[in-house]
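User: Some background: our group keeps a shared notebook of sequences we're curious about, and every so often someone picks one and asks for a predicted structure to add to the entry. Today it's my turn. The entry only has the sequence so far, pasted here. Could you supply the structure so I can complete it?
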Amino acid sequence: GFSGPRRPFAGSARDFVLGTRIVNGKGEVLCFGGKVMKNVAGYDISRLMAGSLGTLGVILDLSLKVLPCPAAETTLGFEESAANAIAKMNRWAGQPLPLSAAAHIGETLYVRLSGTESAVGAACKRLGGEVVENGELFWEEVREHQQVFFQGSEPLWRLSVPPATATLDLPGNWLIDWGGAQRWLVSGAPEANIRSVAAKAGGYATIFRNSSPACDSLTQLDPTTRTLQARIRQAFDPNGVFGGTGAAVAA
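Assistant: Of course. Here's the predicted structure to add to the notebook entry:
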């Protein structure tokens, strides 16, 4: 789930995995998927490797789908509250616009448009706003956590919620990404409160930076999912060579 700002509009990292060759916990070399997009042989194990945190095997080879860079890209800025930004991001996501990123920081909504020159130009005229200079650098800093928001020593949380979820009643500073679906929170609020609010919104919370070693960094799974993950891990690594426990999941 740790994809960049383009994720809700272009797909996650696992959506671009075509095939893999791995060594499992039994020392066996296994191949899954292929090197072309039209490949339907066997189970889609290749994408399962994305987000497995190395608990299923060591990746030897990886085939990825790639796309051409857009002919034009422009980032627009709008002065908006978080509530208005969430509403606009969700409304625009349902319209025929060449959106490739949408985030809100402080009192500013940032929207990136990517595509042909004509499509991007028409969308800019339709949406208005101010053109953001060095927009490419801004999105890179968000993706790589180099943005000023991510600096500091206070606990940093990642909340994954439905994109149309209203602003959450938690103290701290927010960076809303993925059109509302991914929300970064810098806050010293109690862990239980943050996880509870995220769960009530239909999502979950994961701690990324924390000063307390007692705080669980991963999100606890429900019993059914935990059992399924344990069975998959048992098939790939029956002796626990890679150390997976099946008790939690990454963001």
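Suggested note for the entry: Residues 246-251 have pLDDT under 50 and may be disordered. The radius of gyration is 20 Å.
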